[in-house]
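Quick question about two entries, pasted in order.
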Amino acid sequence: MSHSEEREVRPEVNARTEHHSIQWAGILVGGIKLAVLGAIAAGIWWGLTPYFRVDRNTDGDQFRAFPQNTIDVIALGSSHMQYAFNPGYFYAETGYYSYVFGSVCQPFSESFYLLEEVLKTQHPETVVIDVFTLLPQSQVCYAEGTYYIAMDMMSGKTRIDAAEGIPDDVDPETKLGYTYDLYMNHSNWKTMDFSDPKKIRAAASEEQGIAWGLGYVDQDPEVLQFTPLEVFEPQKEVTLPERETIWIDKLIGLCEEQNIHLIFVKTPYQEDQADADKLAAIWKYLDSKGCEYIDFLAEAEELGWFLDMDGDTWHNNTWGAEIVTRHLANVIQEKGYVTRHTENADAKQVYETARTRAAKYLLNKQNVNIYRLIEDAPKYPCTILFRIKGDTRTSIGTYENKALNALGLNHDFINAKEEDYYAAVKDGVLLQESSEPFELELDGNRISLTEDDILFNGASTGLSGEMQIIFCDDAFEWINAVPIDYASGYFWKKSCDGWTCSWNP
């Protein structure tokens, strides 16, 4: 091709190139417009979503309202954890701050994202997670809605990410609805009162205030009977499916990354053979990963945990929770898993309130187990009134003498067993003691310690026995008067005689 021909072609090439450039510019501008429109649409979608919330779980809001970077220990899991771990008990044992970030039938995958949510405002040194939702029995409560309940405790991107933890057999529309309330409850606009903007804004706002229960759910003892927990030996070897090991590994990895001590547990409940086989497989897998775990089923007898007395077939009651929490507290303290605890005035007020509430759970009139009472009372705010008629028949031994002294009673119940003794103690401080009966005023009440009874404003507190201990809160809103008769050994040597017992300690 000659130079003249080349010059004749160039204008055509340049025109074609210019045309392509214009086309690409148009596509780019169009793409930018679509991206901007998409971002605007996403923003509107995300912004409107909170206004369509219905019966939302506000536990996450109240957790985020807690003073930041104060919580030392986090407990995760289903209702098995919510009923078994009491931060008020844990505080009484250790002085450390803890919180139960649980939810009903909490899917194991969602526990991972809930820990991510925790780490936005807190940096616990220890995480305890219950493995119940990996066991066959949990399938009876594994409705799709349990994912939504857990996800509703999350915020921002964490909630969106948590959708990937929902099993593939859940349809995409349901997943989308769990992520965005606007999609699930889009027809909610029909019930909105647009004449009251404040009310609409309030529905979209986070719940104010903190959860004074700290995530713990209490349950009163109902069947006062010692029933040994049936524990099954594994019979069938089970292999954990990948859909479960992936979340176990993610939890392990996240805790390692954040320098968190991770403890897997199975709180006491009535297992069956299938659960026993699966639980053995879980412990085997955790052994292969070098992870720590506590099997409370295997340790129930040693810890003195009994079905009925300490919990029903699934959940711990307030007495069972004390056993579980105390054991976890001992493990965490002995292994030094909390090293950065810092006192916080606002948090301390919450935990002192939780400790006061815990005293009522453990020391109220339903509890007549004198051993549990005298072991727990020194840890909780309470008033103790005491009278004993000296008697050589007393069965008080070295252990009982030490336990009574730990209550604040300044008397030698072994070497001075023939002496009468009367005393009043408040929050571990001895108010008054004497070898003779006396009266005193407490919180506007006239307390009379007589030879045969302890009276409140002239009224008897009940059967006195040869020895009597009264446990009550400092405001006298609840009173537990426990009589003890040495001649029969009533309550003292056989602590379940006050109940219908199927087992005697």
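Here is the second entry:
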Amino acid sequence: MARKNPNGIDPRYLDKEKAALRRTYRKSVFFNKKELAAINLYCKKFGVRSRSALIRQATMEHILKELEENHPTLF
């Protein structure tokens, strides 16, 4: 019997979307003592549980902002 979705969305579609968002590529970042201390203090102060998610979000926000501001123009 097929799964029922309360939103009426096909579960196969949802599985495909979830698979497309799966993170499969790894990058490593090195921090010095001061940078790591700042990250740890921020996480402790604001209750951040996942430092990798914090760093990923901050990095992607910066990258997407820069790309938006510097997009190619025709004229």
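Reply: Residues 30-75 form one domain. The two ends are 57 Å apart (CA to CA). Hope that helps.
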